[in-house]
Structure formats: structure tokens, C-alpha cells
Amino acid sequence: MQERRYLVLSALASDRPGLVATVTDFIAARGGNVEDSRMVVLGAEFGILLLVSGEEATLARITHDAEELRRTAGLDLLVKRTRSPEEHRRAAVVPCLVTAESLDREGIVKAVSEALGRLGLNIVSLQTTSYSAPFTGSNLFHLEARIDVPRGMTITQVRAAMDEVARQEHLDIEVRSLVG
Hints:
By secondary structure, this protein is of the alpha+beta class. It contains five helices and eight strands. The strands form two sheets. Strands 2-3-1-4 form a four-stranded antiparallel beta sheet, with helices on one face. Helix 4 (about 110-120) packs antiparallel against helix 5. The longest helix is centred in the middle third of the chain and has 18 residues, at about 55-75. The relative contact order is 0.16.
């Protein structure tokens, strides 16, 4: 049995029904497997981000035929080889979740991500949402970031850094371990 290989496929197109089916059919028809995915409508655009696995020949077919998918589906498309998730995240880490809430305004993602970067922490995923508050209709903001905290660092250190960001940026921030 051949070793599993990986690639990331990123696609962007005007939102319309059938995009997910088109892209996943393209991958399956060439023997690829969708290991992980994120898909979202932003404005009037639909974004797709997939981790695809398969044998070397499978990924070569997907990469070779990507232009066909780009042309027939009207996608902006990027295909890039990558390492396995296990190989990339070998280091001993404690997965944590950082959540932040505030009135919506510019600079919140920048402030939180810069503070995490100064600590040398890897952001594994980050999602933000703006929404209207019940009753008042004020624009509110919610951020969720999954981070990897190396075993040499304590969650208390991360919380202290996030508390400083909360004070400076007028945010409610919580940091919690995702382990047991």
C-alpha cells in the first residue's frame, strides 16, 4: 500500500448552488479523499478550503486537471502540496480556545493575533462573526481562535497576555484548554 500524500485546494467563486458538489465530485472522480474542509459565504462569494489526501498518482491527477475545474466551474483556484497533519503538528502542545467579544470595530483580529504571535503561538483556526445585538441592534463582534500552546508555556501566561489585550482593546476575552 502506498503512503498517503496531501494537498490543499482553495477555491473562490460567486456564490451559487452546486459549487460544493462540483468540487467534491472532481476530487472523488480522481480518487481523492476530503480529509478536512472549511467552506463559507463571505459577501456574495463562496470560499472553499479543502485538505485532500490520496496516493501520489491521485494527487498528480488532481493537480494536472485543476485547470479543467477552474475553467468549467468558474473558480479562482489554488492547489498546493502539503505535509500530513500529524507530521506538521508533532510537537507536544496543549490545544486551547481563545474567545473574544466586543462591540464591532476595526482592529480586533489584529490585536488578538499580534499578541498570540508575540508569544510564538500557532493559530490553528480563527473564525469571526459580526451580528446585531438583540433589542438594541448594536453591531457586536465574536472571535474564536484555536491555538496550540507548547508544553513549555502555561495557559496562565497566555491568559495574562490576553488580559492585557482585553484591557487595551475593551474586549471580553476567555482562554481555556480543550484538553479534558
